[in-house]
Amino acid sequence: MNNNFKSYDLVIIGSGPGGYISAIRANHFGLRTAIIEKNKNFLGGTCLNTGCIPSKCLLDSSKNFFIAKKNFSSHGIFFEKLKFDLNKIINRKNKTIENINNGIKYLMRKNNIDIYNGIGYFNTKNILSIKDHESMIEKHKIQFKNCIISTGSFPLNLSKNIIKKNYYNDNELNNKIITSTKALNMNKIPKKLITIGGGFIGLELSSVFSRLGSEVIIIDSMDRIIPNMDHSISNEMKKILEKSSIKIKNSLFVQEIEILEKSEEILVSTIDNSGNKFSFNGNCCLISIGRIPYTSNLGLENIGIKKDNKGFIIVDKNLQTTINNIYAIGDVIGGKMLAHKAEEEGLYVVEHIIGNKPNILNYNLIPSIIYTYPEVSSVGYTEYELKENKIEYNIGNFPMKALGRARSSGCIDGFIKMISDKKTDEILGVHIISEFASDIIMEAVVAMEFNASSEDIYRICHPHPTFSESYKEVSLMNFENKSIHI
Q: Do residues 194 and 280 make contact, with C-beta atoms less than 8 angstroms apart?
């Protein structure tokens, strides 16, 4: 290698959860490591700065306000004037991001990881230019033995020809038609919010605004919300959300969004599969229709790294690109766009680089979570997928309202559903709507990782009173079609 350039065993482009955790693990194995991050003081990627962490901050703040408003009186707790301060909610969110960001900076120093600010641009399969984010002027050049592309994704927006441009300027558009990034920094709560998209992000942010006083309607082109989850989850969540005053309209396609002249309102025009047209008025429109990979300005074409027709980088089972010393992980390769997926992929790549033989990742056992109230979590196969694959199965369903802990907490909505192989009783899927579902799903992940049966779970002692008892109950339902408490 050219001694004029600083040289590394591993260079990681992108400092999100996949990137910075990979860097720390690489240091554990003695690899000289560097991270390239395009945004100055923006360590942690989308997850920390404009995704997972800030949205959970807003979800927690709005949940506390909602519960205080709706449920505290049943506990004998009363307020004369209950109100929220949006500025303080946003400031708390920003302070949390700042604290975690500082923590990541500390971890980088502790693990001797060099950080470069700029865009990583491939000159060759072993040389990267680091260019200024805005001017694209080269600032540094570095060499590497191996590289991980972990550049993430950004929100997909509607086609520009859908947005009618008669009566707005750019500033009005920025405040009226927004993505999730803007939604995390609103300076006021819209009176009426129209959310386009009934996926994870759409449901979470709609919940935030609804709890804080917005009249919310969700419009989605699919026949149900969260379509990638089990049908029972989709159906139950629609009931729960509508009970909380969020309206949901499925199988509608957006034709036009117009900011009305001399009005604070916008008009969203839609059409259904039969050609029927429907219009909805609101003060703000949140576009939450998915995310696209960030692969521009990386110089991938210079070295022959291939992408699919949607722009995702193509990798093999070891997450190697078409250039075998360059890997890609996380959102940029598609699949579930989850921080913990990127983390596991990054850890896998590091072990592969040093010559270990880690188990190939089982993507079926990566849990999905929606942080509504109650929460949603899911792992493994859905009932629909098993039917499609002609796999015979048993099902157990157990309502959370039958749990003593659910009754005492005041959150009785939801259920747990377990699906197991009809012949072997091996657990194939678990789907939950419940308070703390994001945490209790891990019992299912561990069980399925070790090929446990529903009977195995039933014969394990579960503490009382807890939400985890639902696993014991549903497992008995699954293999004997009986239950203790229903």
A: yes
Residue 464 annotated to the active site: yes
The tokens of 10 are what? Answer: 């591993």
H or E element at residue 26: helix 17-28
Give the pLDDT mean for 448-471: 96
DSSP single-letter state for residue 313: B
Among 44-58, 259-273, 337-351, 357-371, which stretch is predicted with the lowest mean pLDDT? 259-273
- DSSP-derived 3-state class of residue 195: strand
Q: What are phi and psi of 67, to 5 degrees?
A: -65, -40
Q: What is the largest CA-CA distance in the chain?
A: 73
CB 206 within 8 A of CB 195: yes
Q: Hey, what domains does the chain have and what are their CATH numbers?
A: 6-154+292-363 (3.50.50.60), 157-289 (3.50.50.60), 374-480 (3.30.390.30)
User: 422 with 394: CB under 8 angstroms?
Assistant: yes
CA dist 335 and 393 (Å) reads 26
Residue 351 burial by Cβ neighbours in a 10 Å radius (0-12, 13-18, 19+): middle
- Condensed to tens digits (0 to 9), the pLDDT of residues 33-42 reads 999 999 877 8
Prior bond of 463 cis (ω within 30°): no
Cβ(421)–Cβ(392) under 8 Å?
A: yes
* Residue from 140, 231, 340, 464 carrying the catalytic annotation: 464
Please, is 135 exposed, middle or buried when counting C-beta atoms within 10 Å of its C-beta (0-12, 13-18, 19+)?
Answer: exposed
| Six token digits for residue 270 | 């839609």
Quote the CA–CA distance of 123 and 300 in Å, as a whole number: 9
Helix (H) or strand (E) holding 21: helix 17-28
Q: How would residue 172 be classed by pLDDT, with cut points 50, 70 and 90? A: low
- Closest among 10, 7, 13, 1 to 329, alpha carbons compared: 13
Nearest alpha carbon to residue 10 among 179, 171, 168, 150: 150
Contact of 128 with 138, CB cutoff 8 Å: no
CA distance 54 to 56: 5
Cβ neighbors of 353 (< 8 A, separation 6 or more) are: 10, 26, 31, 146, 327
Question: Which two tokens mark 484?
Answer: 């203790």
Look at the chain and count its residues. 486
Which tokens belong to 101? Answer: 């960001």
Q: What is the pTM of this model?
A: 0.94
SS3 362: coil
